[in-house]
Amino acid sequence: TYVVTENCIRCKFTDCVEVCPVDCFYAGENFLVINPDECIDCGVCEPECPAEAIFPDSDNRAAPWIEINAKYSTQWPNMTRKIDAMPDAEEWKDKPDKAAMLSE
Ligand code: SF4
Ligand code: F3S
C-alpha cells in the first residue's frame, strides 16, 4: 500500500485524490490518508503530490504513518474529487515537524 505522511499536513493539495483509480483517500481537517485495504499499489498518486507526502509502505519515511493511515481511513469521509488546497498550503509545503499539527 501507499501511505500519506507528514508533508501533507496543512497543505492538503488533493491532487492525489483526483488520480486514484479506486478512490481510497479519506479526508480529515488538515490531512488525508489512504485506506490500506483498498489501495491497489498502482503508485500513480505518488508523483502527483506537490508536497511529496506519499510513499510506498516499504519506504522508511512511511513507517511512522502506516498505522495513522489505517486508523483514520476507517473514521474520516471518503474523498474522490480534487478541492482547493488549504489557504496556506504553499507556505506550509516545505516546513518540517508538522506531525503535532495533525487534526484528528
Ligand atoms: Fe490510489 Fe494507487 Fe495511490 Fe493506492 S497507490 S492510493 S490505489 S493512486
Ligand atoms: Fe496531501 Fe499531497 Fe494529497 S498534500 S492531499 S497527499 S496531493
From TrEMBL:
It comes from Gluconobacter aidae. Gene3D superfamilies: 3.30.70.20. Residues 87-104 are annotated as: Disordered. This is Ferredoxin. Pfam families: DUF3470, Fer4, Fer4_4. Coiled coil: none annotated. The keyword Cytoplasm does not apply. Residues 1-29, 30-59 form the 4Fe-4S ferredoxin-type domain. One of its GO terms (molecular function) is metal ion binding. Residues 87-98 have a biased composition (Basic and acidic residues). Keywords: 3Fe-4S, 4Fe-4S, Electron transport, Iron, Iron-sulfur, Metal-binding, Repeat, Transport. It comes from the Bacteria. Its cofactor is [3Fe-4S] cluster; [4Fe-4S] cluster. Ferredoxins are iron-sulfur proteins that transfer electrons in a wide variety of metabolic reactions. SUPFAM superfamilies: 4Fe-4S ferredoxins.
